[in-house]
Batch of 4 targets.
Target 1
Amino acid sequence: MRKATLCLAGATAFGLALAGTAAAAQQPRHGKFFDKLDANKDGVITQVESRAARTRHFDRLDRNHDGTISLEEFHAKGARRFLRFDLDGDGRVTREEMTEAKREHRKRNSN
Ligand SMILES: [Ca+2]
Ligand SMILES: [Ca+2]
């Protein structure tokens, strides 16, 4: 009986260790996004901080600052993204270019 208890405890500890590893592996990506929203760095995202983030996002899309996002402004963001992905500038994005662009984006955001 004692042996079974020890095995269960070991399995639980192993499971927690794996869960901790998985959480740690995701931490940098979610941590960076979380940190961006958590403006005062108190470890929680308030409604005010969430609204501020949405406002910043809106303002980035509203390129001419008229208080609205036109279809052109909306599409311009997609076009800018496309140009970032089209690494050789041939007007087409290959799977390799997209993978490389995402890798570069992650590298920039992890620093
Ligand atoms: Ca906060
Ligand atoms: Ca606008």
Target 2
Amino acid sequence: MTVRTVRSIAKIDDELCNGCGLCVTPCAEGAIELVDGKAKVISEELCDGAGFCLALCPTGALSIEKREAAAFDDEAAAGRTAEKLAAKDRPGGPAAIEQHCFACGRGEMDAVLFPCRTKGASTWVCAKCLPALIHG
Ligand code: SF4
């Protein structure tokens, strides 16, 4: 039986979502996918409500709400992440788009990336390039 509880969970405004997909990869749990051109939380159990997706949304379509939902399932999220990584290069597999540092181009498989905003765009910066951005 699914345990339900009041907790934080991602909310997506369909009207504001432009289907860019920028929120899909930041979700480490694989809870968000594009369905018919719009971002959707595909399963409540996969969303931990951490909100990493929020920073990358260029339209403000994402928010975190507190409501009754199925409890977060750590095991299911780990399985989904493994599934996405395994299917990364397989056509038709779950989308796992490797992101890159906007400054040096290193990908997330080789570097730790942080979401950031620059010149009105949502993007990523790696741990190596971040200090230069902070200190000039
Ligand atoms: S980042 Fe925002 S606009 Fe883009 S797909 Fe996700 S919810 Fe939609």
Target 3
Amino acid sequence: MKIDKNGIFIDDYNKNLERRCVDSSCQKKYSINEYLEGSEGDFYPPVNYIDGCSKSCLECWLGVSEFMDNDTQVENDVSYELGLEFPTEHGHWYDSHKFDEIGRGNLEVAYEKYIKDDCHLIVIPLSRVSVDRAIYLPCGLIVYPVGGLDFSDLEFNSEEDCELSSIQSLSSGVTIDSFTTQALLVLPIKLNWNSLLFKGHSEHMELIRTISEMFDAMFFNFLKYENCQLTYIPDEGLPNLLGQINSNPMMAGALFLKNGTRKAKLISGAATHTE
Ligand SMILES: [Zn+2]
């Protein structure tokens, strides 16, 4: 199987042969043809699925399989410090004179002081959480109801569209649409934006987990204690983990909004495994 100047060359037998993914926890049945029809671009660099298509399903090759151990995938190895830091100055939170605008989802107004303090914003879907208006929490956190934020004018960074991690996120099936059908948590965060763009997929997933744990410890455990009914079946009445997508709870996502701009970076994948 190879790519030459005329394109991909795979004979019909090999194209249509039913294969089983080599990943022991996946073992999905697939044929190369299925992926050629939907994702031909992934056979070429930088994904190079041509090298893996005879043994592995595309999802496992990309490291976005639900069954995949996130630590075993190939990464581009650009590592500069993410510098993740939660802001410490919250004395200005929140401006009660601007309730209306904040309630209507105007994040620029809501986070004006944090933005001046060099914070970016993270928007995270909440699963099995329902609110009927914007709920203010301490330290710059707001929970918005379904449809409470407008994402129509975001600019997704196009230069990095060919980054492997972006393709991996894309393959998880999580899109900005997933953010319009769930309650959303917004929080301010300090981090190195360029570093965020160039981090690999597994580091992005680790980041979602870190933020999720941080939020659980800060507020969510308390909110659950206050508001959720406990049942005999553990978890039945509790919200899902932070970032989980209703339509596919194996996947989680987070949307990063660049300080003071409409630039956005969506990261998503199978982040909900417990180690
Ligand atoms: Zn697989």
Target 4
Amino acid sequence: MLVHRCALLLMRRNDNKISPRGPSTRGPFGCFEIRLLGMDMIDELGALGEEAVAAFDDLLRRALIEQPLKQPLACRAGCAHCCHQPEITVTAIELFRVADFITAQFAPEQIASLLTVPPSPISDTQASWVLKVCPLLREGACSVYTARPLVCRSINSYDVSDCERARRQNRQQPTIRTYGPQERAGYLTLEMVQQGISATGREAAMLNLAPALSIALSDSDAKQRWLDGEQVFKAAWATL
Ligand code: SF4
């Protein structure tokens, strides 16, 4: 509930509009910081991930009232153009939520298939600009849908032909007509989470989902080490 109130504070300070720039001071980020500072129990991480999603949902709900959609979005089950990206970026809080979902729901052989993703290239960002299908896409659908990252909740499109073209052009000129407030809700929530993590001195880098999952699922101490302030995911930091 605390993070939920942080999101509403962000909205109010932006005169009831979702600012594309985000807040100028750290005030509301302090809410997440307080939650993280007091956190030394692994079990609390999952609750924090859920609160971040609730904060995003609240921002989006308010935006839809104040800035209605121009027309229905084209996004629907079975459409997965946006699941082909050079990287899917997540915070550690979101990553642990996805990993917990997988551990609880996936068969051992499905988990094993996620353990072999190589780490991100460190330096040559151009070389890493290759579209890859997210390893969590199964038969055209997201296999972790209820636990999917904030970036996946933010991406949207008014026209699937825009998404098809962007994917065909390797996302070099991704002109997609979107409902901007949904993207900004994701941006603000991610910034709140990342700033909150950073303020507590823990690893706050954005992570490349696939190799970071490989680490989280293969290292049973990953959560505790992350809570203790170790850079657990350095080999999986996002590069783009
Ligand atoms: S996590 Fe799910 S929604 Fe996000 S890119 Fe992967 S398959 Fe698609």
